[in-house]
Amino acid sequence: MALKINSLGGYIHEYQKSVNTPEKFWAEIADNFYWRKKWDKVVEWNFEEPRVEWFKNAKLNITENIFERNLFTHADKPAIIWEPNDPNEAHITLTYKELYEKVCQFANVLKGKGIEKGDRVIIYMPMVPEAAIAMLACARVGAVHSIVFAGFSSSALADRIEDCKAKMVITSDGNFRGTKKIPVKAVVDEALEAKSSIENVIVLQRTKQDVTMTAGRDTWWHEACEGVSTENKAEEMDSEDMLFILYTSGSTGKPKGVVHTCGGYMVYTAYTFQNVFHYNPGDIYWCTADVGWITGHSYIVYGPLVSGATSMMFEGVPTFPDAGRFWEVVAKHKVNQFYTAPTAIRALQAYGLDPVTKHDLSSLKVLGSVGEPINEEAWHWYHTHIGKGKCPIVDTWWQTETGGILISPLPGITPTKPSYATLPLPGVQPVIVDSEGKELKGNSVEGNLCIKFPWPSMIRTTYGDHERCRTTYFSTYPGMYFTGDGVKRDEDGYYRILGRVDDVINVSGHRMGTAEVENAINEHPLVIESAVVGYPHDIKGQGIYAYVIADMSASETDTEEELAKEIILTVSKIIGPIAKPDKVQIVSGLPKTRSGKIMRRILRKVAEGDISNLGDTSTLLNPEIVDELIAKAGLA
Ligand code: WTA
After folding, report:
1. What pTM did the predictor assign?
2. Which of 1, 146, 464, 570 is 20 to 30 A off residue 582, Cα-Cα?
3. Which of 10, 79, 42 shows the shortest CA–CA distance to 303?
4. Residue nearest to atom 23 of ligand 1 (CA)
5. What 3 state SS string does 392-430 have?
6. Whose CA is nearest to atom 12 of ligand 1?
7. Quick one: which atom of ligand 1 is closest to the CA of 510?
8. What's the CA gap between 129 and 145, in Å, rounded?
9. Pocket probe mutation, ligand 1, options 485, 496, 503, max atoms within 8 Å of Cβ
10. Hey, what CATH class is 67-78+97-235 in?
């Protein structure tokens, strides 16, 4: 594909072209794809409603761009290499032709179960090739997939099923993670206990653990596929038809369903995949994310496969059977591009160099980072010990809502700086604004990050509630998309992401809304009120700190310690283990302003262990509470 930028001059040229003549720029890129019918207009948009349409009236199916377009040249090339949790189990390679046949067959299964274009299908699965097959089969028939990370609880799953009125769940019996066998189907069963819109459940056999199959509703994957044709004609989709919904946390309320559409998402993820990772034919590319997150969607499945690349999928965890697993897999498959999260790097760094030096990492050419700011120490460790000083690190900044990477170095092209995402990709027009919304022009400025021009893979709406999309992203700074992130543009014009400026905590690269965690804590019968903040955590980036007011008198047995444990368990049950607070402090009150608003700034300071600069607390309704917080946190 002729989409690749090869020099800094080339980048500058392409960037300027993308700003000066965006329609021409994107039309030329989109010409590299297979459209059943081309567009009438490249982009139509306004950020007031908001309404964003790319490649208007074009017709396509993204899976035809993965399969039909590539099969003549790529049929026997590996599309997916799957590495299982247990290194003693054989890995699986699926060529483009094999994957094509499996996708077509499963697409026919979906149709046989009554799934039609536009229907929503929930995928709740571990990291197995069938998760990708399920996604692509949905795309093939025009169904809208919504993957729910298999670590979420049954109630989180039930909420998502209910929100998008899904007709089907695709799941597995269980999930292998390290030494553990985790039930998956049982969680689905619990989620479906109450009346729901789900008509069918398809269950992949993976762990062979006992599960209950409900007659008339549940079918085994292998039985459903028996005798089903491997030929399937792809549904014709409009460029702006929905491709998928992915739920993500924000600062208020329940997670919202971010909607991505077919045409723009395809063009942007493939274009950025090829440029950011400098993928060359024959390379083995590995992204360690889970398909349950946007990174798995855009940079394990769609971007790489539309590009005809070989994409690795890994079922396990970085520390099983030992902390050298990532590096063993890199050596085993001669991985060329490796894309992971700072959390994983920091966790592995703690095990020292023995697990690293044992393995031959000489195949690596490009290293990537995503999900949270990468601290300088982790950056240097990654660069020196994994990349042996010769692999550029692409620190890629983006979001579920942006669909693809927006700010990132191009490897070997953009000079990198530790902890900087560096420069916007072509087509991306970042703006830094102050709290009043005034644009801060020039270099050496710091403020909130907005984007002022649409890019093809941006969020179109939040499912079932367009107004929520408008108020969340397009109303804070009218005429711009607001990212929720703070940013600095340094003296060289390089961007450094500073983290969230809203009530979102980024735990190990996973977004959690403070309100969402508080709502879960408040479900505990003894809890009266709670406030949750993030605090710096050595490995996870941010940890969750919960301040809880509880009615201890209502319990005869609980000590504060026991209560804290129960609260953690409650959150795990309601959202999932990833949302578990790291610290719970039982308090008699929360610092509030005279209008009753919780002063989170004080809570954050105490959680950080920094009480040197609490600011003026005299305006509080209850200034005396601050001393109690400090004393109880052991800071007095
Ligand atoms: C953060 C993940 C710093 C950021 C793709 C963003 C980052 C949120 C980076 C989105 C990075 C992501 N440097 N921060 N390279 N990448 N973030 O939706 O705060 O799970 O808003 O998408 O992660 O998280 P999400």
Report:
1. 0.96
2. 146
3. 79
4. 371
5. CEEEEECCHHHCCCCECCCCCCCCCCCCCCECECCCCCE
6. 371
7. 20
8. 16
9. 485
10. alpha beta
Q: Where does ligand 1 bind, in terms of residues with CB under 6 Å?
A: 248, 293-295, 369-373, 395-400, 421, 483-485, 497, 499-500, 506, 511
Query: Which CATH architecture fits 8-61+245-498?
Result: 3-Layer(aba) Sandwich (3.40)
The amino acid present at 387, given as its one-letter code, is: G
What are the backbone angles phi and psi of residue 171, rounded to the nearest 5°?
Answer: -145, -170
Å from CA of 422 to ligand 1 middle: 14
* Calpha distance 473→512 (Å, rounded): 17
Going by alpha carbons, the residue nearest to atom 24 of ligand 1 is 399
Is-same-fold flag (67-78+97-235; 504-632)? no
Do the Cβ atoms of 247 and 215 come closer than 8 Å? no
pLDDT number for residue 270: 98
């550029």: which residue's tokens? 392
Per-10-residue mean pLDDT, the chain, length 636:
85 98 98 98 98 98 95 92 98 98 98 98 98 98 98 96 98 97 97 96 98 98 98 98 95 90 98 98 97 98 97 97 98 98 96 97 98 95 98 98 98 96 98 95 97 98 97 96 97 96 92 94 95 95 96 83 95 95 95 89 93 85 92 88
CA of 342 to the centre of ligand 1 (A): 11
CA 499 – ligand 1 centroid, Å: 8
Domain 504-632 has CATH 3.30.390.30: no
Q: Which residue of 370, 407, 428, 507 sits with most ligand 1 atoms within 8 Å of its CB, as the best mutation to test the pocket? A: 370
Query: What is the pLDDT, as a whole number, of residue 2?
Result: 57
